[in-house]
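To the structural biology subgroup,

Please find below the input and predicted structure for Lysozyme inhibitor LprI-like N-terminal domain-containing protein, which we are adding to the shared reference set this quarter. The sequence is reproduced verbatim from the submission form. If anyone notices a discrepancy with their own records, reply to this email rather than editing the shared folder directly, so we keep one authoritative version.
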Amino acid sequence: MALLCGLVAGLCGARAQAQDAPQIDCEKAESQMELNYCADQDYAEADQALNEIYRQAMTRLRKADADLAATPGAEAGAVEALKAAQRGWIAYRDGQCILAGLPVRGGTMEPMLVLNCQADLTRKRTQELKETIAALDQ
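Predicted structure (tokenized):
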């Protein structure tokens, strides 16, 4: 737990520094500070997209639960299943991304590796939720 708290504190520090940073062209980023900043921006964009699709999924699953509640003998539970899945996914993402940073633990590259992992897994989770919504709409 202390390891996770230390990493989170380090990432928050990197995010705070990134907010104070001058405009950086991430297509031309070269220094580790620039690369860390760009990784943070990439993860923030991926997280924003995930939050939007999660809201859409919740709306769709609330409707599915309402439809199931109106069907004799059917049990609702889609919303709770999504919440449980998301909590489990967050725990997986956080642990997996700590592992991604281990090869350079304590170095200046660690935040970039962790953030790149978080962005990648977040984009994959966004796609999973899009597929869930699409399957319900068939």
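Summary notes: Confidence is low (pLDDT under 50) at residues 1-5. The chain has one domain: 2-18+31-136.

Regards,
Lab coordination
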